[in-house]
Write a structure and sequence with these properties.
Elements: H1 3-6, H2 10-13, H3 23-33, H4 37-41, H5 43-50, H6 54-78, H7 85-93, H8 95-127, H9 133-150, H10 152-182, H11 194-197, H12 206-218, H13 226-230, H14 237-246, H15 248-266, H16 272-276, H17 279-286, H18 292-324, H19 341-360, H20 365-372, H21 376-398, H22 412-430, H23 432-461
Helix pairs in contact: 3-10, 3-14, 5-12, 6-12, 6-14, 6-15, 6-21, 6-22, 7-8, 7-21, 8-9, 8-18, 8-19, 8-21, 8-23, 9-10, 9-18, 9-19, 10-15, 10-18, 17-18, 18-19, 20-23, 21-22, 22-23
Length: about 450
C-alpha cells in the first residue's frame, strides 16, 4: 500500500485534542516517567538471582532502552502524534501494523491500571486494616478517571507532583547511599568491596543468574513511552520530545544503574531482607534510617498512583488515535473539552474489570490475562525498531528538516537493538517462568495482526 494512503497527518489526528500540557509538565513526566513501580518492587528478585552482577544486567537492558527511546524520539519529533509508535508503525508498514501495536499496548496499559490500583490498595489496607481493597481501588480509579476526564492539564499536574516526589525520593536515596559507601555518613562504616566480592563473588550464580537478572531488569523499565504520547498535546511537541530523548541516557544511568550499584555495595545480595523487605528498604535499614520500610511504602504508593494516572491517560490517547485512523469503534474518538472522554471511561472500565477478575477468577482468567500482556512491551519495541528502519530513509529523502532527533550510528545501532530484542525472546523461551508469557503474548499479537490485516484489506476494497 503506498505511503500516501497509510499516513494520517499529525495535525489532523490531533486537531480536536487540547494542547494543555506545558513544557514543565513534559520535562517532569520525562524525568519521573523512568522511575516506575517496577524499579522499587521488582528489582529484589533480580538481585536475588544475579547477585552484584545485577548492575551489568541493568546496564545492558538500560542500553537497549536508550536505543529504543532514541528511535522513538526520532520518529515522534518528525511526526508528533498521540498514537506515538502505533502511528509510526502505520506510516512505515501499513494499517495492520498500527492496529497490532496500538491495541496490544492498549490492553497492556488498561490491565496495568488495574494491577497498579491493586498494589496501591494493598499498601493502604496495610495502614488501615479491615478496609476492603476493592473500595480503595475504586476510589483511586474515580479520582484519576475524573482528573483525566476534566482536562489534560489535570493529568499533567498530577504527574508533575508525582514525578517531583519520586525524583526527590530516589535522589535522596542515592545521596545517602553514596555517603554510606564512602564511609562519611555518621554512624556507618564503609563496606568497601566486601559485598561485591564476598558471598560467591560478583557472579555468584554464574551466567544463568545474570540472564535471569537481565530478564527481570528489562521489564522494570516502564513509562518511557508516555512522554512521546503526551508531547502531542503540549505547547511545543517537537521541542518536548527532543528534550526528553536527549536526557534519557543520564536518567536511566543515574536512577536505575546507579541505585542498583549502591544497593549491592551496601547490602549482601543474598540477605533475606532484599526480597522480603525490598532492596531499597534493606539498604536504608542497613545505614540506620529509622522507619525506612514505611518511608519506602509511601514512595512505592506514589509510584503506583503515578503509573495508574499515566496509564489511564496513555491508553485513552492510544485508543483515540487508533479510532481517528479508522481502526476502532467511532465512539472512542468523540472529544469534548479537548479530551477523548469516551476513551478515558472505556479504559478505566476495562482496568476495573481486570481488578474484579483478580477477585472473581484468580486461578484461571486473571493469570491468563497477565500472561497475555507479559511480553507486549518487547513486541512494541520491535515495531518501533522496524518502523524507524523504514521511516528514516523516507524522511531523509522527502523532508530531511524533520530529523530534529537522529538515531545514533544509523542503521547499525538499530540492527543491534533488534538483535537484542530477539535475544531476550530466546531467553524468555528458555525460562519456564517466562515461556508461557512469551507464547500467550505471541498468540494475542498474531490474532491482532490477522484482524488488522483483514480490516486493512476491507478498507482498501471499499
Amino acid at each position: 500500500m503506498p505511503s500516501s494512503t497509510v499516513e494520517t497527518p499529525p495535525q489532523q489526528e490531533n486537531a480536536s485534542l487540547s494542547h494543555g500540557l506545558k513544557q514543565r509538565h513534559l520535562s517532569m513526566i520525562a524525568l519521573g516517567g523512568v522511575i516506575g513501580a517496577g524499579l522499587f518492587v521488582g528489582s529484589g528478585a533480580g538481585i536475588a538471582a544475579a547477585g552484584p552482577s545485577i548492575v551489568i544486567a541493568y546496564t545492558l537492558s538500560g542500553l537497549l532502552v536508550m536505543l529504543v527511546m532514541r528511535m522513538l524520539g526520532e520518529m515522534s519529533a518528525a511526526y508528533p502524534s498521540s498514537g506515538s509508535f502505533s502511528a509510526h508503525a502505520e506510516r512505515a508498514m501499513g494499517p495492520w501494523a498500527g492496529f497490532t501495536a496500538g491495541w496490544s499496548f492498549w490492553v497492556l496499559l488498561c490491565t496495568a491500571v488495574g494491577l497498579e490500583g491493586i498494589g496501591a490498595a494493598h499498601i493502604v489496607t496495610g495502614w488501615l486494616p479491615g478496609t476492603p481493597e476493592w473500595a480503595w481501588v475504586a476510589l483511586f480509579m474515580v479520582v484519576f478517571c475524573g482528573a483525566n476526564l476534566a482536562a489534560v492539564k489535570n493529568f499533567g499536574e498530577f504527574e508533575f507532583w508525582f514525578a517531583a516526589l519520586k525524583v526527590g525520593a530516589i535522589s535522596l536515596f542515592l545521596v545517602l547511599g553514596v555517603l554510606a559507601v564512602a564511609g562519611v555518613l555518621p554512624g556507618t562504616d564503609s563496606p568497601g568491596a566486601s559485598n561485591l566480592t564476598g558471598q560467591g563473588g560478583f557472579l555468584p550464580n554464574g551466567s544463568e543468574g545474570l540472564l535471569i537478572g537481565l530478564l527481570a531488569s528489562v521489564f522494570a523499565y516502564g513509562g518511557l513511552e508516555t512522554v512521546t504520547i503526551a508531547a502531542a498535546e503540549s505547547e511545543n511537541p517537537v521541542r518536548g520530545v527532543a528534550s526528553a530523548v536527549r536526557t534519557a541516557m543520564w536518567r536511566i544511568a543515574l536512577f536505575y544503574i546507579g541505585s542498583m550499584a549502591v544497593i549491592v555495595t551496601l547490602v549482601p545480595w543474598d540477605a533475606r531482607s532484599v526480597v522480603t523487605d525490598g532492596p531499597y528498604v534493606a539498604a536504608l535499614k542497613q545505614i540506620g534510617i529509622p522507619g525506612a520500610d514505611q518511608l519506602m511504602k509511601v514512595v512505592i504508593l506514589v509510584a503506583l498512583l503515578s503509573a495508574m494516572n499515566a496509564n489511564i491517560y496513555g491508553s485513552s490517547r492510544i485508543a483515540y488515535s487508533l479510532v481517528q485512523r479508522g481502526q476502532g469503534p467511532k465512539a472512542l474518538a468523540k472529544v469534548s473539552g479537548g479530551v477523548p472522554r469516551v476513551a478515558v471511561l472505556t479504559s478505566c472500565v476495562f482496568g476495573f474489570v481486570c481488578v474484579l477478575l483478580s477477585y472473581w477468577r484468580p486461578n484461571d482468567v486473571f493469570p491468563w490475562l497477565l500472561n497475555m500482556i507479559g511480553a507486549v512491551i518487547l513486541v512494541v519495541w520491535i515495531f518501533i525498531a522496524v518502523s524507524q528502519l523504514l521511516l528514516r530513509r523516507r524522511v531523509e529523502r522527502e523532508t530531511p528538516e524533520k530529523l530534529v532527533v537522529r538515531m545514533w550510528a544509523f542503521p547499525f545501532l538499530t540492527w543491534v537493538a533488534l538483535a537484542g530484542m530477539v535475544a531476550i525472546f530466546v531467553l524468555m523461551a528458555r525460562e519456564p517462568g517466562t515461556r508461557v508469557q512469551l507464547y500467550s503474548t505471541g498468540a494475542m499479537t498474531l490474532v491482532l495482526a490477522a484482524v488488522g490485516y483483514a480490516w486493512q484489506r476491507v478498507r482498501a476494497r471499499s
